[in-house]
Design a protein that fits this description.
47% of the residues lie in helices and 9% in strands. The chain is mainly α.
Length: 243
């Protein structure tokens, strides 16, 4: 998710009347070579950053079912943008892991596989791929969003608490310097969605004390993102009051 957010964050203040759209493409599974139809992003706009999922700090396309690819033959499962980029050195370990996966039935399309199942499998895949702390903070937050949608509140809570703890780890890392505002908002969101409203309010206040600055970005982009986060803090306070 991090890669996608960084790629399109410049669209935050872009508005248009277009809807998000997908189009069908054929993809070949990098593990078992099974070819099947998947969905690929066709169009979207900056409005995606203003949908209600922002209060979980989860954004389209990860809120949508086509975003997690899953091979219906071997069950290899990743985010759509990672599906074709499996290091050869990891393939044997992935095959060994996938040999342990047994689904309840045969699925004709990856879209018919519940997102909760796809995230369960993807967790094992990304463990083999050895992703970093920031990735897992994002992954658990998105997983929590989908577990809740599929009425699995305990798994949703566990995932959100995991994202919360990982956000703590990131904030303790000097590499996070300049991005504290974002991670305090993430902590506030995870506190809020695990019924810890007081802690959520405290961390929104902490977030408001920082200015977002990513040293890899140009100044204008940093200002736009900081402005977005500031507005999100104000909106979040109103959201919590209405809850």
């Amino acid at each position: 998710m991090r890669r996608f957010l960084l790629f399109c964050s410049f669209l935050i203040f872009t508005f248009n009347l277009s809807a998000t759209r997908w189009r069908a493409v054929n993809r070949t599974c990098p593990i078992c070579s099974h070819e099947a139809e998947y969905e690929q992003i066709s169009s979207y706009g900056g409005y995606i950053y203003h949908w209600p999922s922002k209060f979980q700090y989860v954004y389209w396309p990860l809120t949508d079912f086509p975003s997690v690819y899953s091979c219906t033959e071997c069950h290899f499962t990743t985010y759509m943008w990672d599906f074709d980029s499996v290091p050869g050195i990891k393939k044997d370990a992935i095959k060994s892991y996938l040999a342990t996966i047994k689904l309840d039935r045969k699925y004709d399309s990856y879209l018919s596989i519940p997102m909760s199942i796809r995230f369960d499998i993807a967790q094992g895949i990304y463990t083999v791929l050895e992703r970093d702390v920031e990735f897992w903070c994002d992954f658990n937050r998105v997983a929590g969003y989908h577990y809740e949608r599929e009425d699995q509140p305990e798994k949703a809570r566990d995932s959100r608490l995991a994202s919360l703890e990982l956000a703590n780890q990131i904030l303790r890392d000097s590499l996070c310097r300049g991005r504290e505002k974002e991670y305090y908002i993430i902590k506030a969101a995870m506190y809020n969605f695990t019924d810890q409203k007081d802690n959520a309010a405290v961390h929104l206040n902490k977030a408001s004390q920082f200015t977002y600055h990513n040293e890899k970005w140009k100044e204008e982009r940093n200002k736009e993102y900081d402005s977005y986060l500031t507005n999100l803090i104000h909106q979040y306070r109103d959201f919590m009051e209405k809850e």
